[in-house]
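Incident log, structure service

09:12 report received: a user says their structure output differs between two submissions of the same chain.
09:20 pulled the input from the user's history:
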Amino acid sequence: MGVDVLAAESGPADGREPAGEPAPSATAADVPGERAADDVCARGAAEAEICRVFGDAGPAGVAVAGCESGRDAAGRLDGWWATSSDGSSVGLFQINTINRFTDSSWATVKPGWETFMEDWMLPARNIWYAHEVYVDWGGWGAWSCRWAAY
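09:34 re-ran on a clean worker, output below:
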């Protein structure tokens, strides 16, 4: 039996959840010529959580996370401890640490991001942070691996 990598709370301590209700996953019939989204979302616990949090964008999120931080030999996401060479981007989605601030002054931390530096390596928290960045940016533009989403 594997370790439950998502045992940690998936939202911030104040109970906020990502905006909107996740939509059901696509099926193979919905995406001709593509691997069924249900297959992508069923690869592992991290993939399932990404699909739950991101809804319709979940399969693209799995692709972006895989590109950003890597996969294990079985093709499952495994980069929760990944860090960039300069330490500025961390975790499954390689969240850049500047995303925790409300503006370029770096003086005020966004609500829900107060513990980012302590819990970025927890997959459920990194996924939540990634969703917040995704919403703030209106898509995958914040990630160098944004191309993997398309």
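09:41 both user submissions now match this output. Likely a transient worker issue. Closing.
09:42 reviewer note: Residues 1-5, 7-35 have pLDDT under 50 and may be disordered. The chain is about 30% helix and 5% strand.
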